[in-house]
Design goal:
binds magnesium ion; OB fold (Dihydrolipoamide Acetyltransferase, E2P); binds adenosine-5'-diphosphate; single chain; 20 strands; 2 domains
Length: about 350
């Protein structure tokens, strides 16, 4: 089922948390809402769920205006970071709960069959008689997903469902969630503040800043063509150096960079740590190495440009220049944005 938001607004007292958001999630698509804490992700998701009502705009499920439909009639399944399972019920009872209280009446045996199916889907076969306290955090979130899926929702809403788990478990779970999504094809809106998680999982990433959409595109779009400095910074480590733009060229510490279509004035050059080659001689921004930090797959070099700005870059494990070495930063890929 397709979800459409048209100019949705939400204000708490005098604070506007969501500023006229328009967004479509196509039927069967997995879209990530990505933004820092406080950017309005949960508020948007709660409005789609019907747990919160918009005070402007409309939300459609397919062709139907769902803006004022109550949560229990929307046919949504949701999983939240702290959407605790019922501790006194077994895993099987937790998964069956929604089916038992649903308006759609099911035979006991049909419920039992469905619980077994869902346990298999979330790879927890045989654990139906355990209690939530007897399984791991990752397993509990899988149960929460099974419970959300039990009533065949038209739409799945996930709010940082793996947020409380260890990094390794999170990575496994998101690969797994993507597989389940591909199997079921259920329209899914996934909220996260974790860039890697969004890029890993989603068909499309919608990036929010202070209640506004700043970019909406495929993972490739947002990575290769960040819309502005906020997106560039938010998606990963970025170096920034002040630039002066003149006639389509950005000048940075004596080195020119193409900046077509940009108005003359102050700008900023952005580039990722992986986009630099260190040259002992030749062209580039002159700099001195301050420190080298070892990582499992490379070395992170902290340097300072002759203009006094900090820059970090990644070098291969063989990189052998030490503290105090002088050289040049050859920047392979850079973007210029207007100064804020
Ligand atoms: P996110 O999920 O991206 O961290 P939220 O949607 O939870 O962001 O919150 C967006 C903004 O709205 C925040 O500034 C938050 O403090 C505010 N907010 C959220 N819910 C309420 C509420 N019930 N009352 C007042 N302010 C709220
Ligand atoms: Mg939130």
């Amino acid at each position: 089922m397709k979800i459409s938001l048209h100019n949705v607004v939400k204000t708490f007292d005098t604070f506007r948390a969501v500023h006229g958001i328009s967004l479509e999630v196509e039927s069967g698509e997995l879209v990530a809402l990505l933004g820092p804490s406080g950017s309005g992700k949960t508020t948007i998701l709660r409005m789609v769920a019907g747990l919160e009502f918009a005070d402007g705009g409309n939300i459609y499920f397919g062709a139907e205006d769902a803006t004022d439909i109550a949560v229990r009639d929307r046919g949504v399944g949701f999983v939240f970071q702290h959407y605790a399972l019922f501790p006194h019920m077994t895993i099987g009872e937790n998964i069956a709960f929604g089916m038992k209280v649903s308006k759609v009446k099911r035979e006991k045996s049909a419920i039992a069959t469905r619980v077994t199916e869902l346990l298999r889907l979330v790879q927890l076969d045989g654990l139906q008689d355990r209690f939530p306290a007897q399984i791991s955090g990752g397993q509990r979130q899988r149960v929460a997903l099974a419970r959300a899926l039990a009533v065949d929702p038209k739409v799945l809403l996930l709010d940082e469902p793996f947020g409380a788990l260890d990094a390794n478990v999170r990575r496994d779970l998101r690969r797994w969630l993507r597989q389940i999504h591909d199997e079921l094809g259920i329209t899914t809106l996934f909220v996260t503040h974790d860039q890697e998680e969004a890029l890993d999982l989603a068909d499309r990433v919608v990036i929010l800043d202070k209640g506004r959409i700043v970019q909406n595109g495929t993972p490739e779009d947002v990575c290769r063509n960040p819309a502005n400095a906020f997106v560039m910074n938010f998606l990963g480590d970025a170096n920034r150096l002040p630039a002066t733009i003149q006639a389509g060229t950005a000048h940075v510490e004596g080195v020119p960079f193409q900046a077509p279509d940009m108005v003359d004035g102050k700008g900023e050059l952005f580039f990722r740590p992986t986009d630099i080659d260190w040259r002992e001689q030749g062209e580039g921004i002159p700099a001195t190495i301050l420190r080298v930090i070892d990582r499992p797959d490379n070395r992170r070099v902290l340097a300072r440009t002759d203009g006094g700005h900090a820059v970090e870059f990644d070098a291969p494990p063989e990189f052998s220049h030490g503290i105090g070495a002088a050289g040049h930063l050859a920047i392979q890929r850079a973007r210029v944005f207007a100064a804020p």
